[in-house]
Amino acid sequence: MPTPCPFLPSCGRPLSWRDLNALRDDQGPELYRLCLEYGQQLWLDDLPARALLAVDRALYCDVPVDAEVLGEYPMPYRTIGWMVKQPSENFAGNARVHYQHLADRVRGEKAELKKWRAWAAWAVTRQARPDLEGDPKHIVTEPTHAEIEAGLRACGVCGEIAEWCKALAD
Questions:
Q1: What's the pLDDT tens digit per position in 32-69?
Q2: What is the distance between the terminal CA atoms of the chain, rounded to a whole angstrom?
């Protein structure tokens, strides 16, 4: 059985995508926490790629800086780093490529914020798993840490850069 992620909450009840879908019109703190709880459940069910996607969804929630949940569970960059470091035969795909593609392709509402959070997750993934190759067929200018920090400063929430830096240092 996989080790629980120390950065994620447990909810104590079975969850499914339907629970997240019920909050699709409210992308706020409640959905943020639910995505993290669902990520933990998927992780413990030995579905690491799906767990990472649930955590990604939390990254894109609209959580006000003063939301209580951010005090308990800050932006999940450390979660992402921890997950990609864990040995698993069930991790489908390449997390570095996933975030590279995600960062370059986000559209719609809050696209700039989503882009910089995806690049921040990409940087954490590169740090945690330097063995993962980028996608040579996807031509994109990879940002520096300074550029990612500037993007998070312009778009993110208070304390987000500090959490990202902790994840890079883990």
A1: 999 999 999 999 999 999 999 999 999 999 999 899 99
A2: 23
Task: For residue 67, give the nearest of 4, 166, 160, 161 by alpha carbon.
Answer: 160
**Token code pair at residue 15:** 């969850």
Q: From residue 167, give the alpha-carbon distance in Å to each of 89, 98, 124.
A: 23, 18, 6
Helix (H) or strand (E) holding 67: none
Cβ neighbors of 93 (< 8 A, separation 6 or more) are: 49
pTM for this entry: 0.93
Distance CA 119, CA 113 (A): 10
Q: Flag the least confident range among 7-11, 21-25, 71-75, 152-156.
A: 21-25
CB 52 within 8 A of CB 39: yes
